Amino acid sequence: MDVTTRHIKYQADCDPSFPAAIKSIPGCEKLDSCIQCGTCSGVCPMSIYMDMTPRRVMNLVRYGFKKEVMASNTIWLCSSCYACTVECPREIKVTDIMYALKQMAIREKAYPRRFRMVVLANEFYKMVRARGRVNEIHLVTRLNLLTNPLEMLKMARLGIELIRRGRFSLRPDAVKDPQRIREIMEYQGNGNGRKEVATK
Ligand code: SF4
Ligand code: SF4
User: Fold this and answer.
1) 88 CB within 6 A, ligand 2
2) Deepest of 15, 47, 103, 120, by most Cβ within 10 A of its Cβ?
3) In this predicted structure, what is the pLDDT of residue 199?
4) Cα–Cα distance between 105 and 69 in angstroms, integer?
5) Are 41 and 53 contacting, i.e. CB atoms less than 8 angstroms apart?
6) What is the pLDDT of residues 114-165, one digit of tens each?
7) How high is the pLDDT of residue 170?
8) Iron-sulfur: is it a keyword of this entry (predicted)?
9) Are 143 and 120 in contact (CB under 8 A)?
10) With DSSP H G I counted as helix, E B as strand and the rest as coil, what are the percentages for the chain, rounded to 5?
11) Fold of 11-108
12) Which of 32, 35, 97 to mutate to test the pocket of ligand 1 (most atoms within 8 A of CB)?
């Protein structure tokens, strides 16, 4: 016999500052006008893998169910294809809201320990900042060491073969002037245009 489980949500469990924080982000103000039509979920190519549809995430965000949203895999599976944003009849920037939720989760460390997606993003960022270029084998090695060292053993043979065939280089590559890359990254991180990038 199938058993139906109902989860009751209580208003006291909501975080009233959560919707306000998301709606204060440019482009996310229109969230309250969501009519729950489900178009975003219907066009989302990743929704079949998500534990919560984008429509549901939008609704939980506007009512302050932060814990549920942060625990969902939806924000991490969003591939930023913008289909939902293009199709939304209320012009809600669903993709930007997904980005905002990801940034919030990273800032508050609300993701599983050794979560590969976040570790990968951090290591990628550090590598680009240091050298202006990414070396795939160094990136994959660091990712596996920090998340699942046993994975290294499984991938060792493939890695050696790729190096042997010249598909992976062990030599770290760098742009001529990594400092310029750092300046661009700081410019982006400091509020889009509030800081001048020194020009040569
Ligand atoms: S498509 Fe827009 S209006 Fe419809 S459920 Fe998604 S966010 Fe809400
Ligand atoms: S941007 Fe994200 S949520 Fe929107 S349709 Fe694409 S994958 Fe789905």
Assistant:
1) no
2) 47
3) 40
4) 10
5) yes
6) 788 888 888 999 999 999 998 888 898 888 888 888 877 887 888 888 888 8
7) 78
8) yes
9) yes
10) 55, 0, 45
11) Fumarate Reductase Iron-sulfur Protein; Chain B, domain 2 (1.10.1060)
12) 35
Amino acid letter at 180? Answer: R
Does ligand 2 lie within 6 Å of residue 57's CB atom?
Answer: no
Alpha helices by DSSP H, listed for 30-148, are 39-43, 54-62, 66-71, 74-77, 83-87, 94-107, 116-131, 136-147
Residue 190 is which amino acid? N
Residues of the chain with pLDDT under 50: 192-200
Q: Where are the CATH 1.10.1060.10 domain residues in the chain? A: 11-108
Instruction: Check residue 80 and give its pLDDT.
Output: 94
Which of 88, 72, 75 is closest to 30 using CA atoms?
A: 88
| Nearest-CA residue for atom 6 of ligand 1 | 40
d(CA 143, CA 15): 34
Residue 149, pLDDT score:
83
Q: Which residues contact 182 (CB under 8 A, 6 or more apart)?
A: 129
Give residue 58's pLDDT: 97
The whole-angstrom separation of Cα 190 and Cα 187 is 5
